[in-house]
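S.,

Sequence below, as promised.
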Amino acid sequence: MPASSPSLADVPAPPVPEAGSAPARTRERGRLHALDGLRLVAALMVCLYHYAGRGGTVSESWHQSPSRVFPSLSQVATYGCLGVQFFFVISGFVICMSSWGRGLGDFFRSRVARLYPAYWVALVLVTGAALVLPAVVHAVRPDQFLVNLTMLQQPMGAPRVLGVCWTLWVEVRFYALFALFVVVRGVTYRRVVLFASVWTLAAVVCRTSGNALTDQIVMPEYAPFFVGGLALYLIHRFGGDLLLWGIVAVSWLLGQSTATSGLWHPGAHGDFVRVPLVILLIVTLAFAAVAAVALGWTRWANWPWLATAGALTYPFYLVHEHLGWFVIRVLHRGLALPAYPTLAATVLGMLVLAWLMHRFVEKPFGPRLKKALKKSRTPGIPASFTLPKPK
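The prediction came back faster than expected:
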């Protein structure tokens, strides 16, 4: 998620660090409104890519390639796919922040309550639109739709209802790794640093193994972005030192390499061509933007409306792609609205839909789902049961 980062509100206060596990100093922390704004920027980058920076299905909605509809804008929009990597840096920062001082059960419940209500509604909306206007995308079979409800359709080999949900599968694997190796024993400075260091080494080694299973678990192409976000949160919380900035630097160096190798190939040609130097610049700006938040340079951006912007990011990310293509087809090809007004109206419409999903789905049903999960306990296990701490 990419876009699936939790709300930044109600982050638990920092506990007293255990002896020898963290620097003695911690910083005062409040809501990081600038991080909310960065999440929306990343979502809009991906949105611009899906509407104007790529070919495929969206070309059918515009009735021609976006490179011809938007000759100049499309050359910028094609880099919008890097909003996903931007999301992953933010996600590493926010997941570390939101899990501090919380147990495994709280971590699991918060993730489920945050991810699934809006996701289920998005599945229904996109499937309904596909049935009404199958000229854009076709609805999947009922059995495939039901698999999509689990968010595990990708490893199950089922078609995706939401094109963007491949990033949710990446996020889920990150959550699982972080929960199993850090949250289960309690989040501390030492454990996060050890996890970040080992994951980085595993990601590098994994690229030489050629093993599909280890690739799925370790995610070498995305690990540097999550690790960079984790280290930047530690810098925000405890202050920077050579070790933490070293982890960030290595993450940036590896991240720009995986991003460039994934998005650019020698001799590439066509309507949408990316320049390696621009990819490097955008990845650098993504790390730098989150670093600015970590260092407290963005405290001046304390506008309350940024909290709303951050809240809209996840539902907007879920619905903007396929539903946006439907809207473009109706407005541009059906009603002959010019290209730029169509683009603006589609983005605005998806933001309004995202607000409706946040207001009438996430806000009422997320807390209820979390509360229901908290009440669900295995028979015979007392409510106060916790894993024993290692001696």
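The CA atoms of residues 14 and 295 lie 17 Å apart.

Coffee later?
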